[in-house]
Specification:
heterodimer; A: about 140 residues; alpha+beta; five-stranded mixed β-sheet; 4 helices; 5 strands; elongated; B: about 140 residues
Chain lengths: ~140, ~140
């Protein structure tokens, strides 16, 4: 098994607000992230695919293909977007790093047909990231 | 699907690698420059990885302000800008190698009440790092 990791970056805005909480609770639980006008991050996404190399090409999957999947599924959906309002899959969820990473996993997993999606690592900032693994991973 | 969240913290501290179980020559031979009697320092980075269910009301495994507060109290306050050998009780009789420091940090954080501690990764410099995830056959961090 060989693992291949591709890294992309996207910039997006979000805010944390749960309408089931009072204004005071939202402020207490989410702190600065509750600012009603939102704020943004430069997200860094590392996508790892594991598999056996194809003896004819020496590749697990063609990086060009992975690049196109990431462009179509992630960049067009999330880059320079306000995640709360412009990504319908996140509607009704708080767009935390946990929830965005889980969505990215769900979007990519069925699209990767050569090798298997092994890990999604989403950096929200240089001091915070979330890893998402499939069921049955170590 | 399984999620793990990792938060990275910085702390600066000095240490000296010297074992009372070894003689002077052996200490010098094994630890080299790190055995210099006055100690030396590093900018450490601590990566704390936690796991657990995501609360649908908050979208979080644990609130980062709770994690930051816990790490500040248990790790940053007692260790940042200290001389590990003299200022930290645990290293009075244990060599403060980054292996031992990594284990000490794990032991201090494993009771974080809001999520399960998965592992600690400790960078001593940009070129050395150590990871500890508890005893493999034990349940001490469950």
């Amino acid at each position: 098994m060989v693992y291949l990791t591709r890294k992309i970056e996207f910039s997006a805005a979000h805010l944390y607000h749960n309408p089931a909480f009072s204004a005071e609770e939202n402020r207490r639980i989410f702190g600065k992230c509750n600012n009603p006008n939102g704020h943004g991050h430069n997200y860094v996404l590392e996508v790892t695919v594991g598999g056996e190399t194809d003896p004819r090409t020496g590749m697990v999957l063609d990086l060009k293909e992975l690049k196109e999947i990431l462009e179509r599924e992630i960049m067009t959906r999330m880059d320079h977007r306000f995640l709360n309002y412009e990504v319908p899959e996140l509607a009704g969820q708080i767009p935390t790093c946990e929830n965005i990473a889980a969505l990215i996993w769900k979007l990519l997993e069925p699209k990767i047909n050569k090798g298997r999606l092994t890990r999604v690592r989403l950096w929200e900032s240089p001091d915070l990231y979330v890893d998402c693994y499939g069921d049955g991973a170590r | 699907m399984r999620l793990e969240l990792t938060r990275r913290y910085a702390l600066a501290a000095s240490h000296r690698l010297h074992s009372p179980h070894l003689d002077e020559a052996e200490n010098q031979r094994i630890y080299g420059k790190c055995n210099n009697p006055y100690g030396h320092g590093h900018n450490y980075f601590v990566e704390v990885t936690i796991a657990g269910p995501v609360d649908p009301a908050t979208g979080m495994i644990a609130n980062l302000s709770d994690l930051d507060g816990y790490v500040a109290r248990e790790i940053i306050e007692p260790f940042d800008h200290t001389y590990l050998n003299k200022d930290v009780e645990a290293f009075r009789d244990r060599v403060p190698t980054t292996e031992n420091f990594c284990i000490e940090i794990f032991e201090r954080l494993k009771r974080f009440p809001r999520a399960r501690l998965v592992r600690i990764r400790l960078e001593e410099t940009g070129r050395n790092s150590f990871e500890y995830a508890g005893q493999r056959n034990g349940d001490e961090h469950e």
